[in-house]
Amino acid sequence: MLQRQAAPLREQAVIELRSQIVSGALAPGIRLKEKDLGDLLGVSRTVVREALRQLESERLVRLQPGSGPIVAELTRDEARQLYEVRAALEGAAARLSARNATDAQIDRLREALEAVAGRASSDLVPMLELKNRFYDALIAASGNAIIGEQLDGVQARISQLRAVTLSHPNREGTMLHELTAVIDAIASRDADEAYRLSVAHVMAASAIALDHLQQEGNA
């Protein structure tokens, strides 16, 4: 049940439902009943309905004809396309960061990655929040806010799969190594290398996510 806080109840409901979707507590394909969610969160059905509309705009929820809102499911092909777009966006941000970032912005990138390293990957939702802060720092360093806006939309749609990739055995250490290399290339002002390493980082995560979806499809 939600605690009464300064933030509007709708916003709190969005945060809680998003967290449950990302963590898998609300699994892809599950029907989202307003009354049940209202009872769970201790809010009105109106608040739940508004929260679901927000999550629908983020593509985490979709309307199923005849059933109402359900947790959105991604096909393997949709996931592949989203990771390809994510790779292009992050690669572009890394390339621009190598050209445009100040020393202070590069320091903030390292600090953001250190915060990621200090959080156990088993704490999936907090880990994703810290990784998002790292990407916020990357976008700031790139000097291109439009890339950030586009990346936010992609990240929201694959948030469940990001939880899958982060919890994959040995992924945490590999991820930190990959992102450290990206920052080092940015600090060296090697735009092409920063781009290459950033794309490789995303495609490594993509391989894990697509393998997961393949196994689910064969189950």
Automatic annotation (TrEMBL):
Keyword Transcription included in the entry's annotation: yes
Residues annotated as signal peptide: none
UniProtKB keywords: DNA-binding, Transcription, Transcription regulation
SUPFAM superfamilies: GntR ligand-binding domain-like (SSF48008), Winged helix' DNA-binding domain (SSF46785)
SMART domains per the UniProt record, alphabetical: FCD, HTH_GNTR
Pfam family, any one: GntR
Protein name in UniProt: Transcriptional regulator, GntR family
Organism: Agrococcus casei LMG 22410
Species classification: Bacteria, Bacillati, Actinomycetota, Actinomycetes, Micrococcales
